Amino acid sequence: MTVDEAMARIDAVKEIGGAPVIVEAAGKGRHRMIALDPSLRHTWSPWAHLDLREPDEAHGDDPDAQSIAVLRFSPNPALWFGIMFSYLTLATIAFFALCWGGAQMIMHNPPWALWVIPVALAIALAIVVAARIGQRLAHEQMLLMRGALRIALGVEGHAERE
Prior knowledge:
By secondary structure, this protein is of the alpha+beta class. It has one domain (3-153). The chain contains 3 helices and 5 strands, in the order αβββββαα. Strands 1-2-3-4-5 form a 5-stranded antiparallel sheet. The relative contact order is 0.15.
């Protein structure tokens, strides 16, 4: 199947497992973002990013060469930004706490600012744990989306890399 045929099949997907989905073209036409309808989305609901590529040059002019589909899951883009912004904020706070605590030690004052660092690390760990919980909650939706996309592309029994 050519990339254009595969794109047409993906663009025709309107529901997955009875749940309406949104398929958006992104980039230069060979990338699709697939998400559940906003009415069915949860905070932990995954977004699927599908890239379709022509067979690589190693196949030459082989008429049996198949297009390559790469499917990646990610959290909602707004949630992903929030997580990354939180990590950046915590790292900045910890850095300045380290500087402040170092200045306190140089001035022979109690370095109470250093206590901010373990608090920032604990909050970062809590974010990691929350992300793991979200991944577990989203697992069923990821399997549903992946299975429906495999059916739409007709790739039953083909090689899959986890």
